[in-house]
Amino acid sequence: MRVLFVLFISIYLFGANFDWQYDFKVAKDLAKKENKPIMIMIYQDGCLACEYMDEVAFENDELSDFIENFFIPVKLTIKEAKSLGFKAYGTPTFYFLDKNAKQIGRQLVGGATPKVFLEKVKEYKKMID
């Protein structure tokens, strides 16, 4: 039981294998500096699909490595996103932007398995290349 508790706390505390940006301005600056597109995740507290993405999908090494290598990941609350002009049609909602912060394709709404989300992220990456 104790081992299970420690494992749960570790997953909760450390989350994804990449570092989220929580400031959109910083993310835009990084995108230009690193020549990478931006992936925005709009979330809200208590969202089970958001928790699934953080605790399961983004813990997948292949998915997290791809995002870390090819995107600047940004997490915004619904309130923050709205103030920046983004709409959330449910949570999580994902937007993909080029390095100049121009939207690429349509937004994604809801959670997905690591395999399915990786395929979607790869499609967005191809739209940029």
Description:
By secondary structure, the chain is an alpha+beta fold. 49% of the residues lie in helices and 15% in strands. The chain is built from 6 helices and 4 strands, in the order H-H-E-H-H-E-H-E-E-H. It has helices at residues 2-14, 24-34, 48-55, 61-70, 78-83, 114-128; strands at residues 38-43, 72-77, 93-97, 108-109. Strands 2-1-3-4 form a 4-stranded mixed sheet, with helices on both faces. Helix 4 (61-70) packs parallel to helix 6 (114-128). The longest helix is centred in the C-terminal third of the chain and has 15 residues, at 114-128. The termini are far apart. Mean pLDDT is 90; it is low at 3-15.
Helix segment tally: 6
Terminal-residue CA separation = 48 Å
Poorly predicted parts? 3-15
State the strand order across the main sheet: 2-1-3-4
The profile of the biggest β sheet is: 4 strands, mixed
What class do helices, strands and sheet pairing give?
alpha+beta
E-strand count: 4
Overall mean pLDDT:
90
Q: What is the CA-atom radius of gyration, in angstroms?
A: 14 Å
Strand and helix order: HHEHHEHEEH
Gist?
Helix content is 49%, strand content 15%. With 129 residues, the chain is of the alpha+beta class.
Draw up the topology in text:
Layout: H1 2-14, H2 24-34, E1 38-43, H3 48-55, H4 61-70, E2 72-77, H5 78-83, E3 93-97, E4 108-109, H6 114-128
Parallel strand pairs: 1-2
Antiparallel strand pairs: 1-3, 3-4
Helix pairs in contact: 4-6
Essential attributes:
129 residues; alpha+beta; four-stranded mixed sheet; 6 helices
